[in-house]
Design a protein that fits this description.
By secondary structure, the chain is mainly α. Helix content is 63%, strand content 0%. Helix 3 packs across helix 6, helix 7 packs parallel to helix 9 and helix 9 runs antiparallel to helix 10.
Length: 211
Amino acid sequence: MKGYWTIRIREALILASNWHDGQRRKEAKVPYNAHLWGVSLLLALSGADEDTIIAGVFHDILEDTPLKPELISWQFGEKVLEMVLMLTEPQNLSWEKRKEEMLRRIVQAPLNIKMIKCADKLDNLQSFFEATLAEGFRQGCDNSQARVWKNFKGGYEKQKWYNQEILRALFANVPIEDLPDIFGTYMRLVELVFGEKIIIDESVREKIKSS
């Protein structure tokens, strides 16, 4: 995590925190900014470079705030903006179509984009999982009736579908030797929360087990 707390990352966190101020996470009613810190920390622990961490900080900002893309490129560069745009869902589509479009992007995306999406989904799913435990659902048991899922479009079934498909998209087109540990962490959590093993190449699973 060497170099995580750089001036540029600090400026990105301050800017994003100001724009997201007052927003709350659906599953826990805690400030949304906790998600920004969670994603950036996961990326730093995974060895992501500075631009990738900054793009992770801004991954939701164009969807959830009126911030203009030009401000990102002006202050943090075109490379960061390009990553943020790739992670921004088209808002003129239905929930299902937006998710299908994102899945298509992630399948073909470079590794740094996949890492941002993985950190985003991992931090979110960890929060969902903690919410089910707080409701009294035991680890490893069916939690499909937990209240937390009612906060999201499609509820439990669509969240299950999307997390499983994102996981498959993350592994797509990445050589085994380049798989980051965070993919394995996310896979284990997806399988724990939704109670199903993901069908992936056994050599990939063995690589994850050894990491």
